[in-house]
Structure formats: structure tokens, C-alpha cells
From TrEMBL:
Name the record gives this protein: Insulinase family protein
Species: Sphingobacterium paramultivorum
Keyword Hydrolase: yes
Peptidase M16 C-terminal domain: residues covered: 206-383, 692-848
Residues in Peptidase M16 N-terminal domain copies: 44-165
Annotated GO biological process: proteolysis
């Protein structure tokens, strides 16, 4: 649901309520250092006492587009952009250049955003040295108080921001234009979009921009959050030195707090669009601002609200298993703006079932609002939450982004930051106080009639089927009067995952790989099992398994069944368990196991905490040996597949994407031809289990990789009992190797869509590649160099794009292939010129290694810092061991001499590499232009 997803995507993570019962203050996390300088500037410092040698910094400005005057629309956002275009101590783009030399990636580690009532600047920096951190804080201080607003840089940035506006144009912008006026009706929000208006962006004068900065960027409207490995007291001294001297400019403009306008009616909007390819029904109700969590009573109200959301999700997930009247549905309550919350809900509908789908959804909504949740639903959730808290693994590393999000709430709302242990204890106490009747009252308060906007969007071609406003009002009225019974859902649950223990196998050979501290076991059924002890997450393990095969190892007549088997089998339960029974049986249990069949491999991913390791192994054995297909699940997934295939041809990008896929794809594979006719004919319920068993009956040649905190003797017992016990024998291993033939370069130009923008994709493809560790590093270095050079040219010099996407990837499975993709969106009339500038940059990189030495050195610093940060994590070892084993790399150099390998790659190597892989590659230029330019 495009509208609903767009709204939910920007809602606050922390859900709080607005009913107060009791007022005992919560205690602040004692590790947090906070203060306010004499000028009103606030700061929050949180220690990150882990091996992570980084500092994450955010500057909060309590001003956004709502503070703009009528002649400043879009200038709050423009000021944010100018922070990267020159300040007192860092002229022009020097701040980006300097930070990139320290390993900071523009976009990932260095960024900012502007909303209606806030502006936030973000830096994450390597802070092994105190000097790096002080320099970063100096940069932030310049952002706060000393931006230059160089006239030439302003003119350059106009084009970039207009291109940012252009990237948002199209269907999503038109849907937003239909939706937001209903929500923001008669409020300042309706006339203060952060992006602004094109007229003002093109024509404002420098003094107007500077006026906004001087008026609202003042110490008493700012806060700084720092999550750091450095001594917090030393950081506090830096902050006082750098931020304490700034003065609040007089006279001070009053910071007015704005809210959405309330109304008693329900507003409706039915909108059809030529480019829409889904049918979305949604409603959004305006709520008062949620109360900041400062007391135990606030905390309890917050828990009620998050419980309501969790139970709503569970209910609609369960309904989806039982009924296919609509594709998906939801209800939730969330915060959106500083002074308002929202109650939202809706459904994505099927063609031919629009009215009946809305009616069915509204009746389920009414059932929930009338009767609430059953005692069983609440008790299941309560026990699940308790067990999750009790079994949660202990992370050695603090998540700085989560902490910064919480500190942001402390600054903007005044809520209390609680210690994790104290918070968990409070949750456990409050969970037992929850009751169904109280939650029902909360639910009904959130979804009261009135003050609501209802939207229905659909493809223009379905206009005759789309209900009018009068019909929607009638459906709401009918659901309110409907004879509905309380929700009942009897689920029979077997007593145990496995009724009988399998006949165990054996570990028949052991080998220690000393270079990386990995143990390899050969199992009696022909599988291999690799173990790596690592305790970055205490009491937690993750297990993956893989084998070459996949779709291309199967008969082509079963291709469609293979594509859908994973989802159908995964949603149907296993053995004697339906999906609902398995979910209920594992309630609060951390064990999980997901199977997959991919184009060139099959495998699984599983994980568990210490107490649930046995359950994880049992679950793997159960799903492997006893797959099942639920008839309703099969019917629902097939229906969704047919609907997606039917709508695909109406997607404005479809013909363009198909032309690209045909140009760069293999000549003899048909992965992209899932037509309605083919799905209808080939997707058969009686073939799903046989197809799954063809890929998973035999465990022979499977490789398992276990990483985490475990006792090796205990694990061996589980491996022999469940993994070595998996069946062995023959399996179909031969793959149909795709043929990527060298062709003549191609140029694709197509016309579609109403938005005045060009979409450009450039591909460079070759099969002349040798996929190994040195090539992997060269690919990443080349990608990073291209990103920076193209950003500097196309964005900063030409002001022609908002961003440039670059990806350089390669593989040797199932055949050698390397592909480089460069993509961007721009003004249609400038597409060819900017494509030419891409070639200019490629030529310079190939001809002159000295041209990109700075970018290459910066890329090496960035890559090594990322490697250093990731090296100790379970996720790193799981992914990299899997790649090493799957691709059969002969050396462990990636793990033991990464920096040396990086250092050995020189600029001349990258220049020659680019010449071989780009200049001599098969090239595809694909441009999509607006429909109105077609001659």
C-alpha cells in the first residue's frame, strides 16, 4: 500500500501514549552525561565502552520548514545542504574532502535531513585518536554557527536541490499530493513541505537564505548527541570549548509550536492514476501528541500502546492465513510529528474484489474495535515478550544509531533515557498489569470516528470498478452495524516438534583450519560442517547451509514451481504443524529456520539463543524432512503471483526494465518471464513438495557454517543427532550454465511516464574475469573511486543530478560474470551531456592513475575501517566463511592479511583494471524519457 507504507515509513520507533495514571519519575541512565551551556545549548554524551573505535555525532536543530516565511519555502532544507558547501574554517567542499580522508563515507557516515519541525546533521567518524573527534566536533560547530553561504556555491546547490525534487516526481509524488492535503488540511503543514516550491528554489536571493539561518540556528534551539569510545569528560570539555561561546542573536524569533488541525468529519478522496499498478485503501486518523515517557505511568501507557500495535499485527497476520479477500492489511498507532500522532490502517486489494475487499477489511476492523483482543492473544504475547527478554543475547557492542535515536527523543520531547536493565525490569513488572478490557479502551480511543482521512487509490483503467465516496461511506456504516461475533481461533498444537528422534549419524573426520580458528567436520551423510567460535553476541548462534544447484539444476518444466516453493512451503508449517500451530508452539522461543531455493543454489538460515539451540536443530530436521503444503496458502500465494504478473505490464518502468534484462541477461535462461499464462499453467500444488524434496531430500555435499557462542561438545551431539541424520543419496547436481555472449554494444531509448525526468542506466559487462580475493578488492576500490569522481563531476560541478549510483559486482557461479552499473536521474535535456561526462571520468581514470590517487587512498581507509569494525562480528564470519567455501577460494588471505592486500593495489592497477573491465566490456546505454517527448 503505497500511501500507507509512505506514512508508516517515517513514524517514530518509540511508541508512547497520552493517558496518565501515576507519576513516579523514571531514573535516568547513569551512564548518560547531559548538560546545558549558559547560552542554552544542550549536549548528551553516552559512552560506547566496546571494541568499536568510532564516535557517532548528531546535531539537533529545533527548526524545520514550519519556521519558514512565505518567501522562504524550501530554504530550511537548502540551509542543510549548504552545510556541506563551505563554512568559516572549511571553505567550499573541504569538509567532505577532509572527512573522506579519515574514512568517512559521504551519504553513509556523513549526512543530514530536514523535516517539518527539525533539522539533524550526522557524522560517524573513526575516533581512535582524540584529535579526529575534536576535528569532527569543530566541523559540527561550524555547521551550527559559521556557514559561509558563498554565492557561487548557492547557485550550484540550486541545481542539486531541483534534481532532488525531480527524483521524487512521478506516481509517488502525485499520490502524496492527494494524501497530504487531507491529513494536513487547514494547518501550517499543508503549506510548508520541506522540499519547498520550484519558484522559490530557482529565484530566492542570498539574504533570504541567510536570514533563516541567523534566525533559527541559535544555541538555545540546538542540542548535540555524542556516542563515543573516548572519555566522556574529555568530550564534554571539547563541547564547552567549541559551543559555549556562541550567542543567541537578538531579538530572538519566537519558536511557535504547530499542530495539525482537528475536524469532526471523515474526509474522503478517491483517486485513480494512469501509472498506478496497485489498489490501496487506507485511512489516517489524527491524534494528540503522545506524552513523553518520564514517569512509570507514562512507561505503562507506552507499553499498552506498543502491545496494541503488536496484537493488531498478529491478528491481521492470522487473518491473512485464513482469508484472501485482500492481499495484505494492517492497523497501527504511531507518532508522526512532534505534536501529533496518527492511527493508520488499510488494505491492498485485488482487481475484481475492490468493494468486497474493503467491506471484509472494515468488518475485521470493526470486530477488533468492538471486542478487542482475546485473553489467549494477550497471554501469548505476554509470555512471548517475557521469554524474549529473558533469552535475549547479550550484545558486546552498543548500537550507536539506536542510542542516537533515543537521545534525539530526549532532546525534542524531554523523555527519560532509561538504563537497559532497568527498562527490562519495568517491562516485566508492567506486562502482568495488562488486561484485555483496558487495551480495548485504548484501542477504541485511538480509532474514534471523525478527524480522519480515507483514501482509495487505483489504476485509471479500473475506474469503473472503483467505489465512489458515497459507497465508501456506506461500507463504513454497514460495518459499524454488522452482526459480528467475537474472534475465535482454535489451533491444535502437537506436543513436540519431532514425535521420534531420528537415527543419528556421525562426525567421521575432524580438521582444524588454524589460520582462521575454524573447525571442519565431515559428516557420515556426505555433508560438511564448519564451526567458528565467536562471542560478539553472548549466548547466540547462527547457522547457514548451502549447496550449488537451485533453479538451474532442475528441469525447466518445474521452474515456476521452484520459484514459488520456498514461500509456499515456508508459509505452510511442517510435519503435523500448521503455520499457526508452529508459530504458537515456538511462542517466545528464539529458534528459527528458513529454507530457500535460489537461481544457482539452495540452503537455509537458522539462529537461536543458548536455551533454544536444541529447538533450532529440531526445527531444521522437521522442515527438511517433513515439508507440507497448505491448500489455502498455496491458493493465496498463486493468486498474488497472478495479480503481480497481471499488473506488471501496467508498470510505467516495465518495458524499460524488460529491455534492459534482455540486453544484459543470458541468452538461454528465462527467469524474467513469469507471465499470467505460465503461472496459471505451471504452478501446480502437487508439484511443490516434490520440487522442494528434489533440492533438499539429500544432504550430500551441503556445507553448514555455524558461528557464535557455543560449547563444541554440546554442538557435536546436536549435529550428529539432527544434521548428520539427514538423508543422503543421489541428487540432481548438473546445472544449465547460462550463456552470456559477447554482443555488439546496445542503446535503449524508451518513452514512458508523466514525470519530467530522464532515468539513465549504463552497464559494462564482461565474462573475462577471475573471481578471487584480489579481484573482489579491486571491484570495491573501483566502485568507490567511481562514486566519488562521478559525484564531484555530475553533482557538485554540473549540478546535474542529486545522486549517482555505482555498483561493481562479479561472480564465478554458475559462470564467470562481471557487471558494472552506473545510474542516475536528471533533466531530460541534459541526459546525453551527463552520459558524456561519465565517459570523461572513465577516460581520465583509465589514462591517468595520478588523477584519482586521493580518492583511491580514501577508499582504502574507508574499506579498512569497515573491515576492522566488522571483523569481530558473527555476521562477518558467517557471511565471509560462506563466501570462501561456496566459491572455493584457495587462500585465507582475506581473513589474515586484508590490509596488506589492499596496500598492494596501486592506482596503476586500478587504471589497467578499469581499462580491461570497462573499456573492453560489452556496453548497454539505457535511457527512459517522459512520454511527452516521444515524436
Amino acid at each position: 500500500m503505497d500511501i500507507l507504507k509512505k506514512t508508516i515509513g517515517i513514524l517514530s520507533v518509540l511508541l508512547v501514549s497520552f493517558i496518565q495514571v501515576k507519576a513516579q519519575d523514571l531514573k535516568q541512565d547513569p551512564k548518560l552525561i547531559r548538560g546545558k551551556l549558559k547560552n542554552g545549548f544542550q549536549y548528551f554524551i553516552y559512552p560506547n565502552n566496546t571494541n568499536n573505535q568510532q564516535t557517532a555525532i548528531q546535531l539537533f536543530v529545533n527548526a524545520g520548514s514550519l519556521q519558514e516565511e512565505d518567501n522562504q519555502l524550501g530554504l530550511a532544507h537548502f540551509v542543510e545542504h549548504m552545510a556541506f558547501n563551505g563554512s568559516k574554517h572549511y571553505p567550499k567542499n573541504e569538509v567532505i574532502t577532509y572527512l573522506e580522508s579519515l574514512g568517512v563515507k559521504f551519504g553513509a557516515d556523513l549526512n543530514a535531513h530536514t523535516s517539518y519541525d527539525e533539522t539533524v546533521y550526522k557524522i560517524t567518524i573513526d575516533s581512535k585518536s582524540k584529535e579526529n573527534l575534536e576535528k569532527a566536533l569543530d566541523i559540527v560547530s561550524d555547521w551550527a554557527f559559521n556557514l559561509s553561504f558563498d554565492s557561487l556555491e548557492i547557485e550550484k546547490e540550486r541545481g542539486i536541490i531541483i534534481e532532488e525534487w525531480r527524483t521524487k516526481e512521478g506516481l509517488s509524488a502525485r499520490l502524496s499530493d492527494q494524501t497530504l492535503p487531507l491529513i494536513f488540511s487547514h494547518s501550517r503543514y499543508d503549506i510548508r513541505k520541506p522540499i519547498g516550491t520550484l519558484d522559490i528554489l530557482r529565484n530566492f536571493r542570498r539574504p533570504t537564505l541567510v536570514d533563516f539561518y541567523q534566525k533559527w540556528y541559535r544555541p538555545n534551539l540546538m542540542g548535540l548527541a555524542v556516542v563515543t569510545n573516548q572519555d566522556p569528560k574529555a568530550v564534554e570539555k571539547m563541547i564547552k570549548k567549541l559551543f559555549g561561546k556562541a550567542k543567541n542573536r537578538k531579538p530572538e524569533a519566537k519558536r511557535v509550536s504547530y499542530s495539525l488541525a482537528n475536524h469532526t468529519d471523515t474526509l474522503f478522496n478517491v483517486y485513480t492514476d494512469k501509472e498506478a499498478n496497485s489498489i490501496d485503501f487506507s485511512y489516517i486518523g489524527i491524534l494528540p501528541a503522545s506524552k513523553a515517557v518520564k514517569t512509570e505511568a507514562d512507561f505503562f501507557e507506552n507499553l499498552k500502546r506498543s502491545t496494541v500495535n503488536a496484537l493488531l499485527k498478529k491478528r491481521f497476520d492470522r487473518i491473512a492465513q485464513l482469508d484472501d479477500s485482500y492481499k495484505s492489511a494492517s492497523m497501527s498507532v504511531s507518532d508522526l510529528l512532534l505534536n501529533n500522532g496518527l492511527s493508520v490502517g488499510g488494505a491492498t486489494l485485488y482487481e475484481g474484489q475492490i468493494k468486497s475487499g474493503i467491506s471484509k477489511y472494515l468488518r475485521e476492523r470493526e470486530r477488533i474495535l468492538r471486542y478487542g483482543f482475546t485473553s489467549s492473544e494477550l497471554s501469548d504475547y505476554r509470555e512471548q515478550y517475557k521469554r524474549q527478554l529473558q533469552r535475549a543475547p547479550e550484545n558486546k557492542e552498543l548500537n550507536a544509531n539506536i542510542m542516537l535515536s533515543q537521545l534525539k527523543d530526549v532532546f525534542f520531547t524531554g523523555q527519560i533515557l532509561m538504563d537497559k536493565e532497568a527498562r527490562n525490569k519495568q517491562i516485566l513488572r508492567d506486562l502482568d498489569r495488562l488486561d484485555s478490557l483496558n487495551l480495548l479502551h485504548h484501542l477504541q480511543g485511538y480509532f474514534k470516528p471523525g478527524n480522519t482521512a480515507v483514501m482509495l487509490t487505483a489504476p485509471e483503467r479500473l475506474m469503473a470498478e472503483v467505489p465512489k465516496e458515497s459507497v465508501l461511506r456506506q461500507l463504513f456504516a454497514e460495518s459499524a452495524e454488522a452482526d459480528l461475533k467475537k474472534w475465535t481461533d482454535h489451533i491444535e498444537i502437537p506436543q513436540q516438534l519431532l514425535s521420534d528422534l531420528p537415527i543419528s549419524g556421525k562426525v567421521i573426520q575432524k580438521k582444524l583450519i588454524n589460520e582462521v580458528g575454524v573447525t571442519e567436520w565431515q559428516l557420515s551423510n556426505g555433508a560438511r560442517f564448519f564451526l567458528k567460535k565467536n562471542d560478539s553476541r553472548k549466548n547466540h548462534i547462527q547457522l547457514t547451509a548451502f549447496r550449488k544447484g537451485g533453479f538451474i539444476a532442475m528441469d525447466s518444466s518445474d521452474y515456476v514451481n521452484a520459484v514459488y516453493a520456498k514461500n509456499i512451503i515456508g508459509a505452510s508449517g511442517a510435519g503435523a504443524f500448521t503455520r499457526a500451530a508452529l508459530t504458537k508452539f515456538l511462542n517466545g522461543n528464539s529458534a528459527s529456520a528458513t529454507f530457500m531455493i535460489a537461481p544457482n543454489r539452495e540452503g537455509l538460515s537458522a539462529s537461536a539463543n543458548q536455551k533454544d539451540i536444541k529447538s533450532m536443530f529440531e526445527l531444521i530436521y522437521l522442515k527438511w524432512t517433513q515439508p507440507r503444503v497448505d491448500e489455502k496458502i498455496f491458493g493465496s500465494i498463486k493468486k498474488q503471483g497472478l495479480d503481480a504478473a497481471r499488473n506488471k505490464k501496467f508498470n510505467v518502468m516495465d518495458a524499460y526494465n524488460q529491455a534492459i534484462n534482455k540486453a544484459i541477461g543470458a541468452d538461454d535462461l528465462d527467469e524474467n518471464t513469469l507471465s499470467v499464462e505460465r503461472i496459471e499453467k505451471d504452478l501446480q500444488i502437487d508439484r511443490i513438495v516434490p520440487v522442494f524434496k528434489e533440492r533438499f531430500h539429500s544432504a550430500k555435499d551441503f556445507d553448514f557454517v555455524l558461528v557464535g557462542d557455543f560449547d563444541i561438545d554440546s554442538i557435536q551431539a546436536f549435529v550428529e543427532q539432527y544434521i548428520a541424520a539427514l538423508p543422503t543419496g543421489y541428487y540432481r547436481s548438473g546445472q544449465r550454465i547460462p550463456a552470456y555472449k559477447q554482443r555488439q554494444d546496445q542503446e535503449i531509448v524508451q518513452y514512458a511516464g508523466q514525470a519530467e525526468k530522464a532515468t539513465v542506466n549504463l552497464f559494462y559487462q564482461t565474462t573475462s574475469t577471475h573471481y578471487d580475493y584480489p579481484e573482489i578488492l579491486k571491484n570495491e576500490l573501483l566502485e568507490n573511486v567511481l562514486k566519488v569522481k562521478l559525484r564531484k563531476n555530475l553533482r557538485e560541478e554540473q549540478s546535474g543530478v542529486y545522486g549517482v549510483g555505482v555498483s561493481v559486482s562479479a561472480t564465478s557461479e554458475p559462470t564467470d560474470l562481471m557487471r558494472t552499473r552506473i545510474n542516475f536521474t536528471c533533466e531530460p535535456s541534459r541526459a546525453e551531456f551527463l552520459i558524456g561526462q561519465v565517459q570523461v571520468e572513465l577516460d581520465k581514470i583509465i589514462k591517468d592513475p595520478s588523477y584519482f590517487i586521493e580518492e583511491l587512498n580514501n577508499a582504502k581507509v574507508q574499506m579498512y575501517q569497515v573491515y576492522d569494525k566488522q571483523f569481530g562480528k558473527d555476521t562477518f564470519w558467517s557471511a565471509e566463511l560462506r563466501n570462501h567455501i561456496y566459491y572455493g577460494f584457495g587462500t585465507w588471505s582475506f581473513f589474515i592479511s586484508y590490509k596488506q592486500m589492499l596496500d598492494q593495489i596501486k592506482a596503476a592497477d586500478i587504471a589497467d583494471y578499469a581499462k580491461q573491465k570497462l573499456n573492453k566490456a560489452y556496453k548497454v546505454k539505457a535511457v527512459l524519457l517522459p512520454e511527452n517527448l516521444k515524436k
